[in-house]
Structures are given as structure tokens and as C-alpha cells.
Amino acid sequence: MDKSPCNSQDVEVRKGPWTLEEDLILTNYIANHGEGVWNSLAKAAGLKRTGKSCRLRWLNYLRPDLRRGNITPEEQLLIMELHAKLGNRWSKIAKHLPGRTDNEIKNYWRTRIKKHTKQTEPFAAGSSETNEHGSSTCQVSSATDQMETYCPPLYQGDVGAFSGGNIPQELNENYWSMEDLWSMQLLNGD
DNA sequence: AAGGATCTCAACCGCGACGGG
DNA sequence: TCCCGTCGCGGTTGAGATCCT
To answer: Compositionally biased, Polar residues: which spans (predicted)?
Structure first.
């Protein structure tokens, strides 16, 4: 469909970083006409971008109600809490954090977890055999999975910690308890 | 001061859901 | 009911910035 950039009739599609001029065009257009069907918006605004790209740029960068800058400790806690409940449903999590985007939260989470995983790697390596028989609540199938649904090794095999039975089954399988989150707070140290 | 390693974040990609014709 | 266009989401990548040795 859009895979033929040489097609003479199709306007060539720009990719990569947005220029200031493009930002201005998009912002002005939306200010005047509002958000709409993104594909036609891109064309109507005269941008050589896909509607998808315009949408992303607007939602993640240009929207006037965006809060840019450091995630506050309160927001951090909320993110952790919501991630424990919702998993990687970044857009859902973002809805609870006015002014923050799913992309921002996703990036924030991943870098945090990456850091945390590194910090605890020696432990994880040492206790890796615990996962072999699937005896813990964590289903680690790869390094990536470990990052996404990481369980602090201290709790591995210690399912009894959840014996209160308050954790819904589908959550119990992949996500952290609040205790985990609080302990991570301490590890982060900020 | 230089070079390498690591981190951060904007942007792209692929897929599934949804709605209209 | 099927097909097509569009949207929204989650995962991934790459470039620039920053830190470390």
C-alpha cells in the first residue's frame, strides 16, 4: 500500500526526527481545526508524514497539557502501583497520570527496571535454578521477559508471602505485590 | 582531554480492534 | 458477512546526551 515511495503520485513520506517547522504546522493546524482523522489531517496540513506519525508527535510531544520533566516520587509510586495492577497497559496507566504519556511512562519504567535488574543480576544468576521447575510466581522465559515481569529474587519461591490470597490469580502470575514495589522503592533510593 | 560505556527519549513498526460501506 | 481504512497500543530501535575510566 504505502510501501512504494517511488510511486510518482504518492507524496513522499518523511521519517525521522520532526523539524521545528513541522511541529509548528501541526500545532497550528490542530489549533485551528482540532484533532480529526489523522491521515487526512496530515494531508490537509501539508505534512509529508503519515497520520500515525502526526498522532504520535502530537500526543507525545506537542500537546499543550503535557507535563514534561522529572517524574515525581508520587507519580513513581502511582506508576508502580498501577503497573502491579494493570501490567504493561501503559495507556491505561497514563490515564491516571494527567499530562504524562504512555510512551513516557513506558520509557521510564523500562529504564528503571533495567537498572534494577542489573543491580540484582548476581542474585538472579545465583537463584536461576529456582525458575527451572516453575516453582515461583515468576515465569521467566528470557532476559526480556525477566525485565518485563521481573520478580525480586528475594521473593522467588517464597509464594507464602502472598498467602493472604488477596492477589487475583491473573495478577499473581506475573506481577508484583505492593511489598515488592515498596522494597524496590528502597532500592531505588530516591 | 579522549574514548568508550551507559542512559534517555523520540520515533518507528507490527498487530489487533473497531467501524463503515 | 466480508473487506478495507483508521486508530490505538505495546514493543523495539537508534541517535544524542551524559557519565566514567
So the answer is: 127-141
